[in-house]
């Protein structure tokens, strides 16, 4: 059952990725939703077949870490039985659809996108020609509600909008406005865009962002036959997902996951609290998990586990990838360094991410601009201001202690 292993690609159940602590298997969940039963089953899998650790991905999926060569095959069988594995008939690309985390229950939403997502998933599965899409090729379907995904960028986004009281989807390709479609046309438009992409790309690994840079949005929209739009996507900061709040008739408890890392025991506790409040878990792309429940979830019962209960928490000011020793590409302890930097980072920005600590130039944890980005290289860090890991550093070879100093100086300037 084991497929060839490669470093640096997008892992799935049948195509795991080798890393510093063993194999990584990414479980692509149905719209990021996780029942208590499924959450406990995944926690058991992490205990039995891996090192008990998970990472919450930027696409609201869970990655099991530390899978051994001998335990991969039984894990794959188990995940297959749980309905969590891609198959020949339904490859992982058919599962790469991110939907608004409160879909179906949010009174602020322009529409319930659930049926649209299912139709799109069905088209991506049935049209076998689309199985040639790159493994990372993704779709976003956003309902325009309280926890909108409009801040996220992926290959193809459908963003619900209303004009003259009539809802429609604004379509963006790699974050650039490309056209619009009627609500009922989403699956067809998604199919036409994917076919146009396959027709126009110049290499199997090219993504939509590369194609847009090479030939422009208009050429792709023309090939896909999209209706033109005068609207533009607005990529604001991610919404506030953490805290206890009401959404329609539901109680929501949003919990931050430090650097997206959680263990099997934490997942079991989350399953317990969701079950006790007649609810389920919903994963978000913002390193946060929601307990969406009928009765108020008992947040106090989670006080002893390392979750984040407020957006103001210093750890929410820093993004960090697994780093060393978990990732074979890393030479620095990103989580350790990020924890040290967090209080200074929070002083510099009250909300949102201020510092990105990346183990290497790949920038997995935060593939977008941050005010301060530290990029691990040969046991030290390079520093980029107001950019991404792809930008030119203004300083190089900084030790962990020097990172603190750099941020302390920025804090001192602001306080002066
Ligand atoms: S950014 Fe971090 S997790 Fe990603 S490959 Fe580099 S070291 Fe590994």
UniProtKB/TrEMBL annotation:
Domain (Nitrite/Sulfite reductase ferredoxin-like): residue spans on this chain: 16-79, 249-304
Q: Name one GO molecular function term.
A: metal ion binding
> Which is one Pfam family of this protein?
NIR_SIR_ferr
Q: Which residues form the signal peptide?
A: none
Entry keyword Aminoacyl-tRNA synthetase: no
Entry keywords, A to Z: 4Fe-4S, Heme, Iron, Iron-sulfur, Metal-binding, Oxidoreductase
Q: Which SUPFAM superfamilies match?
A: Nitrite and sulphite reductase 4Fe-4S domain-like, Nitrite/Sulfite reductase N-terminal domain-like
Any transmembrane segments, and where?
none
Tell me the Gene3D superfamilies matching this sequence.
Sulfite Reductase Hemoprotein, domain 1, Sulfite Reductase Hemoprotein,Domain 2
This protein's source sits in the domain of life called: Bacteria
Q: What is this protein called?
A: Precorrin-3B synthase
Q: What organism is recorded for this protein? A: Methylovirgula ligni
């Amino acid at each position: 059952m084991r497929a060839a292993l490669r470093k640096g690609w997008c892992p799935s159940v049948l195509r795991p990725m080798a890393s510093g602590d063993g194999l990584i298997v990414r479980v692509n969940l149905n719209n990021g939703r996780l029942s208590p039963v499924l959450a406990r089953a995944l926690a058991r899998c992490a205990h039995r077949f891996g090192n008990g650790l998970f990472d919450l991905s930027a696409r609201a999926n869970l990655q099991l870490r530390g899978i051994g060569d001998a335990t991969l095959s039984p894990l794959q069988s188990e995940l297959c039985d749980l309905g969590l594995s891609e198959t020949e008939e339904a490859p992982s690309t058919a599962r790469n659809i991110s939907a608004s985390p409160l879909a179906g229950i949010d009174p602020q939403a322009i529409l319930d996108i659930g049926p649209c997502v299912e139709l799109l998933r069905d088209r991506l599965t049935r049209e076998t020609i689309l199985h040639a899409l790159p493994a990372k090729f993704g779709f976003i379907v956003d309902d325009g509600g309280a926890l909108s995904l409009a801040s996220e960028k992926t290959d193809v986004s459908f963003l619900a909008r209303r004009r003259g009281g009539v809802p429609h989807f604004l379509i963006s390709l790699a974050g650039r406005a490309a056209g619009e479609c009627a609500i009922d046309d989403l699956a067809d438009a998604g199919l036409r865009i994917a076919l146009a992409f396959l027709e126009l790309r110049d290499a199997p690994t090219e993504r939509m962002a590369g194609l847009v840079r090479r030939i422009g949005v208009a050429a792709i929209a023309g090939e896909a036959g999209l209706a033109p739009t005068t609207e533009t996507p607005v990529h604001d900061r991610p919404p506030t997902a953490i805290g206890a709040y009401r959404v329609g008739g539901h109680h929501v408890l949003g919990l931050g996951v430090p650097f997206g890392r959680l263990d099997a025991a934490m997942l079991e506790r989350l399953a317990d609290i969701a079950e006790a409040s007649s609810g389920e878990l919903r994963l978000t792309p913002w390193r946060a998990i929601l307990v969406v429940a009928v009765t108020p979830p008992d947040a106090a019962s989670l006080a002893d586990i390392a979750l984040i209960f407020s957006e103001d928490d210093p750890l929410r000011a820093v993004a960090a990838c697994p780093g060393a020793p978990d990732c074979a590409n890393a030479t620095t302890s990103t989580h350790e360094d990020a924890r040290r930097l967090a209080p200074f980072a929070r002083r510099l920005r009250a909300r949102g991410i201020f510092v990105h600590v990346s183990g290497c130039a790949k920038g997995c944890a935060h593939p977008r601009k941050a005010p301060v980005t530290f990029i691990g290289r040969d046991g030290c860090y390079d520093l980029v201001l107001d950019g991404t890991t792809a930008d030119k550093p203004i300083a190089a070879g900084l030790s962990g202690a020097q990172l603190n100093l750099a941020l302390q100086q920025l804090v001192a300037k602001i306080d002066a």
